[in-house]
Amino acid sequence: MVRNPQSLDQIDFWDLDMFADGDPHAAWTMLRRRAPVWYHDRPGGEPFYAVTRFDDCRHVHANPVLFSSERHGIVLRDAGAMALAEAGADNPLERNKPMIHTDPPRHQPLRRVISHNFTPRAVGRLEEQIRGYARSCLDDVADKRDVDFVTEVAHRIPSAIAFALMGVPAKDWDRLAELEHITVSGTDPEFTHGDSVADAQAAAGMELFGYFAELVGQRRTDPGDDLISQLLAGDVQGQPLPWEQVVAEAGLLLAGGLDTTRAAASAGAMLPMIEHPDQWRILQDEPSLLSSAVDEFVRWASPITSEARTVTGETELGGVVLRDGDRVVVWSPSANRDEDHFDEPFRFDVRREGNRHLGFAYGEHYCLGVHLARLTLRVEFEEILSRFVSIEMTGPPSRVRSNFVGGLKHLPVRMNPR
Ligand code: HEM
Asked: How do beta strands 48-51 and 327-331 pair?
């Protein structure tokens, strides 16, 4: 196992220890320079073309018909997933594909059912609610001082808002978050408690499906102003969404909103600010910079590590001919450190301007929750910077063992109140 690859033949993106303990940027930097669209064929899973330069990654996102999300989905399939697919295993959450796994022309009408809830204006109305969650979370932290920043802060604030928007009762938040970690990051044994990834993910998928099916049933008879009720009230070309489609979109909102924002706050903000205290001081002196600094948090962490697509016709990318059925993988953390696109991309800079990164993707599937994520991160760090004079690391951080959604799972810190 090579955790810090030095040559192309040492690169293996199925080696998840590289993502947990090694340096995947060593692999991506080498690929950007030497083989920006590179055929990766290793025993751990499906073969694919690794796309590592900013312009090529954006080109894939900008052509959603040629690079399909619907055919075989956006998640890289390891050997276990390939075996299940070949055996025709049923994932109930995928019986009706959520919008992220659909292509034009199906995709936009589905997205429009709830997209008005995610405009800057609609999201802006949530600011006081988010601030309330942040304050109550930080009250607990200020009392304890020694905390795990990931589980006790970075996870709690965005998950509270996502669950509240979906109308999930607070008593169920912890269990649903556990299930979400298994479905999104099941390759990390900490989340599956030693069970096989495939078994744990199948069981978590069934439980989530059952949970949301029941919640959808309740909202049907007793609608509220939550997103699930809106999905039920919405239609696509005059037809109401089948209840299984509503369940699938609920699963997507859960998967989309939790670990991503958590990764941006921890791996993209708190850890680099501890490592570069001058950046912490800049924001303390000038908190108004946070409105743009949140994009540096997202660029730095690039929470969604890989986005897979299937080619639907012959084309060329980065000088390489791709054919119908080929899988390509956009590595956003690589695009977001591309020297041809960013000045000093390996410098964490909260003052960075014109920060047009691909952390929220681009084009057709551009993150629906982008304004919510930015607002949550801004409010969270406004509250942190105003209440705590300094933050020290009290133990080593640990990274998620995954090539799909990255970030930290633990960051032990002492938070010193003013
Ligand atoms: C820092 C936090 C976040 C990051 C980095 C992020 C990143 C992304 C990315 C890269 C995609 C596109 C994936 C692809 O092209 O295959 C995406 C899509 C999506 N995100 Fe986010 N996301 C974040 C927060 C959120 C939040 C808070 C929500 C909602 C609660 C959300 C909901 C969605 C949805 C529904 C989609 C699918 C959009 C579509 O297919 O049209 N995301 N996100």
From this structure: parallel
Give the separation between CA 114 and CA 249, rounded to whole angstroms: 10
252 lines ligand 1 (CB under 6 A): yes
From the CB of 164, is ligand 1 less than 6 Å away? no
Domains and CATH numbers, the chain: 8-417 (1.10.630.10)
Q: Which segments of the chain have a pLDDT < 50?
A: none
Query: What spacing in Å lies between the alpha carbon of 261 and ligand 1's midpoint?
Result: 10
**Alpha-carbon distances, residue 194 vs 16, 27, 72, 186, 342 (angstroms):** 16, 29, 27, 10, 41
β-bridge partners, 399: 408
Separation between Cα atoms, residue 67 and residue 372, nearest integer Å: 27
Backbone angles phi, psi at 48, to 5 degrees: -160, 160
Q: Please name the residue whose Cα sits nearest to atom 20 of ligand 1.
A: 367
pLDDT value at residue 93? 61
What is the structure's pLDDT at 86? 78
pLDDT at 108: 97
- Give me the pLDDT at residue 373, please: 98
